[in-house]
Amino acid sequence: MGRHYLPNLAHRDEMLKEIGFTSIEDLFSDVPKGMVQKFNLPKGKSEYEVFRELNEVLGQNRTALEMPSFLGAGTYFHYVPAHVKYLIERSEFLTAYTPYQPEVSQGMLQALFEYQSMIAELVGLPIVNSSMYDWGTAMAEAALMSARVTRRKKFVIPKALSPEKKAVLRTYTAGPGMEITEVPWDERGQVDMEKLKEAADGAAGVYVEVPNFFGLIEENLREIGEIAHEAGALFVVGADPTILGVVEAPGELGADIVVGEAAYFGNPMNFGGPRAGIFAVRNDKKLIRQMPGRIIGMSRDADGRRAFVMTLQTREQHIRRAKATSNICSNEALVAVAAAIHLATLGPRGLSELGEVILKNTAYLKKRLSEVAEVPFDGVNFKDVLVRFERPYSEVHEMLLARNIHGGHYIGEHFPELGEGALFAATETTRKEWVDALIEALKEVA
To answer: Partners and quaternary state (predicted)?
Structure first.
């Protein structure tokens, strides 16, 4: 009798048929060939033999330290202090679920309260929820929230926006029937201000990012906010929090809502996830009541002792489904706690130093890349740098991989007007010798 390694194996064909596939290969057809590893573990193998076989497969992977990576566009190699992982693996955090009973969840509630407090100071807005799934879903929730508050159906975004975020946004807004309007970039890669004025008319919200998808720091952020407000729209800013030690907080520039990615602190790349989305608003009851997720607050118990509670919980688990703002669950809470620990470790000075190092490394990468390819946009870059090549970038990328260098993220598929464009990224972990090796390799292949 054959052994079933997965409890649902007997129902595999039935499950595949239900979702419209005929085989496991069809199910994973979007994964590049050669990337799917099959395991045939016959009856009789010992646990050690299975461990050894799996370890040999895992040994084919190379880390960002073994293979210098310039792949950015939303996922970046940041250093995470060792104590962060140690602390979040404590059972008090690791096994904690949604704190329905505050009397037995004070530790987790306080940790989330501290996360909210630090993010509030970072983004310049006083009200922060205890995290979303990721940046993309936070942006999409901001669009829905803008529509609820303004009773309008249009949301304006820059054309220079991550294709993944656009896909999430369109998925979230399809049901409510929202209109998504894209504003092109100008000759410097910034939001086209004249086109923005036209698009903002009748909008529920206007969204912009710092830095933008091309890695450029938007130079007209305050003016963009003024255009949004003059049109009666909410001003929504998506911010990479690692830049906020060296630029003005979005809340100080007029943002009504700030979203972003908290997982850049305290969490490894981990194949792209998990994440924790930032969501903050100004102190306005109309905005606070429409916020998705949960807000943790500090209060006093019956004996006058400090106590932490869920102050706002507009999820369908807690209130009538028709009144719920969002069904955001709890899997990102541990990621948010890790971010809080890392932020507390850095402090204001450390955060500024982090941003300065990333700016310096990005500037060096951009300067060197301009020696071997076209860098179409000037301005100040943070992490990502857009580069255009004369030959197909897929060829360039494969040749770099053959030289043990992971190149940039190809964006020509989604932005054909940019030609064979790719985003190359640097962070505080990027070493000068890695950049120099990249440039020498590009001289040979580009």
So the answer is: The glycine cleavage system is composed of four proteins: P, T, L and H. In this organism, the P 'protein' is a heterodimer of two subunits.
Q: Is the pLDDT of residue 74 over 60?
A: yes
Distances from the Cα of 441 to the Cα of 159, 370, 391, 401, angstroms: 32, 14, 15, 10
Q: What is the C-alpha separation between 350 and 84, in angstroms, rounded?
A: 16
- Summarize pLDDT for 88-118 with one digit per residue, the tens: 999 888 887 777 778 788 989 999 999 999 9
Question: What's the CA gap between 334 and 415, in Å, rounded?
Answer: 35
Q: Are strands 257-261 and 234-239 parallel, antiparallel or unpaired?
A: parallel
According to CATH, the topology of domain 347-444 is Aspartate Aminotransferase, domain 1 (3.90.1150)
Looking at domain 82-342, its CATH class is alpha beta
* DSSP one-letter string for 362-388: HHHHHHHHTTTSB----S-BSSEEEEE
> Helix or strand or coil: residue 138?
helix
What does the pLDDT look like over 148-206, one tens digit per residue? Answer: 999 999 999 999 999 999 999 999 999 999 999 999 999 999 999 999 999 999 999 99
**Domain extent listing, the chain:** 82-342, 347-444
Model-level pTM?
0.89
The string of pLDDT tens digits covering residues 377-426 is: 999 999 999 999 999 999 999 999 999 999 999 999 999 999 999 999 99
